[in-house]
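<context>
A single protein, sequence plus fold
<sample>
Here is the protein in question:
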Amino acid sequence: MSTCIYVSHPNFQKELISELSQYRHDLVVRGQLIFTEFINEEKHVAGTACFAQDIWHDVQFEKITSISEAVKFLKSKHKYWFGYPLNNIRRTKLIEAQLLNPFPKKIDFSPNKQFPKTGVFALLDANTLLYSLDRSTNIPFYLLPFNEDKINPPNRAYLKLWEALTLIDHYPKPEETVIDLGASPGGWTYVLATLGSKVLAVDKAPLAANLAKFSNIKFLKQSAFSLDPKDFPQVDWLFSDIACYPERLYDLITNWIELGQVKNFVCTIKLQGKTDFALIRKFQAIVGTKIIHLFQNKHELTFILSTEAHN
């Protein structure tokens, strides 16, 4: 047995606790961290915790008597660390200041970004250090402090797509064809166009006027649900941020999957009312699927199915 810690989003801890309670009843909540015990064979269960911003596996505990001792110990274990502000926050920051943290305060969105393996530590109390080198992501709690583009995107939805693509470390290429369903006003279409892909933006409502400057965007004024996948034999990526019931999105996605022509999917599951975990499990049952709650997500999840994703 070893300790596993789930990091919750500040606004969605109840959802994460409800999700975990389907499998475990030994949960201990400390701030935004949820502690539980697990055996190695159960690690796949942790992967179903889509509301977790990060999952720390095989958490270890070490007694320390000073800041310098903590720094020396962590340096002996790994090169890169970031500290989580659980308890003794000032002490945590003093330890972190003497360690290497590869993350700048702000990052540019770029397909060329590389994130090294980074450990996490926190203080359970002044003299008890907890740490993990086996995490679900190399990025701190899925929180990506992007240098935002406050001029060109038509809305802030672009941040969700920046985050999703960075997390899977896989991006549409210039020669690839992508479809953006429910594109208006064009936040995701903007991101895809800047990557150089050939974008088909589909919506009954128009795109923002400033997107007309992109020659690689083709707009189709039509409902996303009226498209026949058979009419689109060459699609590398299918994107959707449509505001619709999850059941309808599930049917749309499976229709495209059954044809076997799309290699990669990134779709927002807009949850309605009380979170329906049985419905979420239907999405999770699709082979190769990853369901995550982005830091930029509200009461919604992001469905990812990619044949080449790294994370």
